[in-house]
Design a protein that fits this description.
Blueprint: H1 2-13, E1 54-55, E2 63-64, E3 72-76, H2 77-82, H3 88-91, E4 98-103, E5 108-114, E6 117-118, E7 122-126, E8 129-130, E9 154-161, H4 165-168, E10 175-181, E11 194-203, E12 208-219, E13 222-234, E14 248-264, E15 267-283, E16 289-291, E17 296-318, E18 327-348, E19 357-382, E20 385-401, E21 403-410, E22 416-417, E23 419-420, E24 423-424, E25 427-428, E26 432-448, E27 453-469, H5 472-478, E28 489-503, E29 508-519, H6 523-527, E30 530-532, E31 537-540, E32 548-560, E33 566-588, E34 591-616, E35 619-632, E36 637-638, E37 646-653, E38 659-668, E39 685-695, E40 700-707, E41 739-747
Parallel strand pairs: 7-10, 31-34
Antiparallel strand pairs: 1-2, 3-9, 4-5, 5-6, 7-8, 9-10, 11-12, 11-41, 12-13, 13-14, 14-15, 15-17, 16-17, 17-18, 18-19, 19-20, 19-21, 20-26, 21-22, 21-25, 23-24, 26-27, 27-28, 28-29, 29-32, 30-31, 32-33, 33-34, 34-35, 35-36, 35-37, 37-38, 38-39, 39-40, 40-41
């Protein structure tokens, strides 16, 4: 009893917990290795815990978190509604060790950062499809964001921390964010074959209004659903700011549809399509000013951004044996993103009184991903041990292009030129590129000692080929003759993994995992070619880059109790090698030459804990704490993207029906571990949120929240990397001030 009391006290005082802890999130489900992963698992005894929540991404089959030798978060529709989540920043607001970057000048949300690793080193997937990536080489343009699915389409989001290349291949070196969309079958209750709902939501963080309409119908073995969501908003309002953020208006139209056909009792066919259209207008006040180093004064700047995203997929699941294969799933898909960033700028000399010229810019980015995956499962008893094999093949073909155009107009004469700022337009900083990725993987979950010990070896073999197709627009970007010419590259890599999990008894368990990561050099890093004679610098392609790699070690302990209380304690140590950076490689006359090279080796280690203590039938205290430290082993300097120690605690009343209320407090230490003493060090902060939800009846429910109640001025540390304390735009990077949010759902 003393041990249990100590553990309860630890959970109640140290903030150990999940983002939202309602029974809708913590489904009491388990699945032994020999169970059919496509079917609901039997319920456990006692009250469901957060460790009973089911993940499908971590093991590529349905498993409760308590049966996974890794740290995984599961966020469901119920969480999204309860927490008034309207975007990806909200999605990870209460997640230990996970943030989403933000560019407040114009681009908006950037990338997930998991345990200090972000960008394209975190793989994003929607229903098993690889999504378009983020053009790392042009982050400085400030007009690119990484497209995300609309949260109204999402049934579940799973965040896998640490390398996951053994199952997912290249780009999963830092982790995986896996979105699963809603099914028509999620809506049919009490034998009804028709469903309709309307939802309205508001977020004061950026004056965002959302309207969403859902319909679903079933006839025999055919089910269909559709969702339309409209979002309108403005710029975010940072807390206690002394400067005006860039005036912004934006809109987003999202269409989602899914057709499910069950021709037999063991076959399911899903046809899914989505289309997202967005536009944004920005008065870029942050670009206005005098810039002596560029001999320029900017009088005004306006930006207009458009994005179109398409997703189409077809999936066949067969839940019966075919030869030695017990179950299989085949997926074919097409993803496409198109962005257009238009900019109009009035400029002049440093001492000019009125503008002398205007610049019009059109920057484009298009990426198409076509892919397929065959995944199979086989259950066998070998040597008296149960084995659950998961294995498959994957293929994707990606085409990427980023043309840029710019014209300068002399206001006095109307004369125009496409030679602007030392560049000749139109141009492309990297050539159009075809990328082929193929992989074969196998994982075995071995159960021993009556199922208490589970051993999970896995390995994946990846083939990666990148073929650049330089054209005249690429050569316009290079200017002078390059010393290095873009060329095709091919990489083959093996990524092993080993997991061990042991249930000491029905209450306590522990696990160990060794995992590896692999990321091939991307299209823009390897083949970036650029010359700016006016600024005397040049960037050269590099066909000799090595893949980035990772080795991760993780140890964890868990406990769960019959009253619904649970906890998890995790320690991790990750080694990353051959990270890509730009460095000076030579001089040609006055021109300095740069090139992407494998320069950085990084070590990141840390501790995370989370849990929940249910001290009364309707009351619980929960939260989490996360500490990490990163070091560039080449220089001995800190890794700026690693967030400071952060702790969150919450007290909650209510669970599923009726009233649910929460008070959430978050404390973060100062971000003093920066690689350069001149960088801004985000100060420590305390943030207080409160949410309340009420299920009125079977047809209506409402959720509301007050966020940053104390109107604290604080920064998300990864957002401010490289920014100095004297930067006049520093306030824009602060998180939103006090705001309120609400959503109301009516369903029939």
């Amino acid at each position: 009893m003393k041990t249990r009391r100590l553990l309860y006290a630890l959970m109640a005082t140290t903030a150990l917990g999940a983002p939202s802890l309602t029974p809708g999130w913590a489904q009491a489900q388990t699945a032994p290795p020999s169970a059919d992963p496509t079917q609901p698992a039997p319920a456990t005894q006692g009250v469901p815990t957060q460790l009973d929540a089911v993940t499908t991404a971590a093991m590529r089959s349905r498993r409760p978190l308590d049966d996974v030798p890794a740290t995984v978060s599961v966020i469901t529709t119920e969480n999204i509604d309860r927490e008034n989540m309207q975007d990806v920043r909200d999605l990870v607001r209460n997640e230990p060790g996970v943030t989403v970057g933000n560019n407040p000048n114009r681009a908006g949300f950037q990338n997930f950062v998991i345990r200090g690793i972000g960008g394209n080193r975190v793989l994003l997937m929607v229903d098993g499809m690889r999504t378009p990536d983020f053009p790392d080489s042009n982050q400085g343009a400030g007009t690119y964001s990484r497209e995300q699915p609309d949260l109204e389409d999402i049934k579940r989001v799973e965040i896998i921390r640490g390398p996951a290349s053994a199952l997912y291949g290249s780009d999963a070196i830092g982790g995986v964010v896996a979105y699963t969309t809603k099914d028509p079958g999620d809506y049919f209750r009490d034998g009804k074959n028709v469903y309709a709902s309307a939802k309205a939501a508001y977020s004061g963080a950026n004056q965002q209004f959302t309207e969403s309409f859902t319909g679903a119908v079933r006839s025999g073995n055919v089910e269909f659903m559709g969702i339309y969501t409209r979002r309108d908003g403005q710029e975010y309002q940072p807390a206690q700011t002394t400067i005006s953020p860039n005036p912004t208006t934006w809109y987003n139209n999202n269409f989602f549809a899914k057709l499910v056909i069950k021709p037999t009792e063991v076959d399911t066919i899903r046809l899914t399509g989505s289309y997202n259209q967005s536009g944004q207008s920005t008065n870029v006040l942050s670009a206005v000013g005098t810039f002596p180093s560029l001999f320029t004064r900017v009088y005004d700047e306006w930006g207009q951004d458009y994005t179109n995203t398409y997703r189409i997929s077809a999936q066949w699941e067969h839940n019966a044996p075919i030869g030695f294969v017990d179950r299989l799933s085949f997926l074919a898909y097409f993803n496409s993103v198109y962005t257009q960033a238009d900019t109009y700028t009035l400029r002049g000399g440093v001492t000019s009184v009125v503008p002398s010229n205007a610049r019009t810019s059109q920057f484009y980015y298009t990426q198409n991903v076509t892919g397929a995956e065959l995944q199979m499962h086989t259950d066998r008893e070998i040597g008296g041990l149960d084995n659950f094999f998961t294995y498959g093949l994957s293929f994707s073909w990606t085409t990427t292009t980023r043309p840029r155009n710019r014209t300068q107009i002399t206001l006095a004469t109307g004369a125009t030129t496409n030679s602007v700022g030392g560049e000749l337009y139109p141009n492309k900083n990297f050539p159009d590129t075809d990328t082929v990725q193929a992989g074969i993987y196998v994982q075995d979950e071995i159960s021993a000692l009556g199922g208490r010990l589970k051993i999970t070896p896995a390995v994946r073999l990846d083939y990666y080929n990148m073929t650049p197709n330089p054209d005249k627009y690429f050569w316009n970007s290079t200017g002078a003759t390059l010393n290095a010419v873009p060329s095709a590259t091919t990489y083959v890599s093996a990524s092993p993994k080993l997991g061990l999990l042991y249930h000491f008894n029905d209450t306590y368990s522990g696990y160990f995992q060794y995992a590896t990561g692999f990321r091939a050099p991307p299209y823009d890093n390897a083949n970036f070619g650029f010359t700016n004679a006016a600024s005397f610098y040049q960037i050269l392609p590099n066909a000799n880059l090595k893949p980035e790699t990772a080795n991760s070690f993780e140890v964890g302990f868990r406990g769960k109790y019959e009253n619904g209380s649970s906890w998890q304690l995790t320690g991790f140590y990750n080694l990353y090698n051959n990270f890509l950076e730009t460095t000076v490689v030579g001089m040609v006359g006055p021109v300095t030459q740069y090139q992407y090279v494998n320069l950085t080796n990084v070590t990141i280690w840390g501790i995370e804990a989370r849990g929940e203590y249910r001290f009364a039938p309707e009351w619980a205290v929960a939260g989490w704490t996360a500490f990490a430290q990163g070091t560039d082993t080449r220089t001995g300097l800190p890794v700026d993207s690693v967030s400071p120690w952060t702790t969150q605690a919450r007290i909650r009343y209510g669970f599923d029906k009726g009233l649910v209320a929460q008070l959430i407090g978050t404390v973060a230490a100062a971000h003093t571990a920066v690689s350069n003493p001149t960088y801004f060090q985000a100060p420590a902060y305390f943030n207080l949120d409160a949410t309340v939800g009420y299920v009125i009846n079977d047809h209506f429910k409402i959720n509301a929240g007050a966020f940053n109640i104390t109107n604290a001025k604080y920064w998300n540390a990864p957002d401010t990397i490289g920014i100095t304390p004297t930067n006049p735009q520093l306030d824009l990077y602060a998180q939103p001030g006090r705001y309120f949010g609400v959503n109301l759902l009516a369903k029939w």
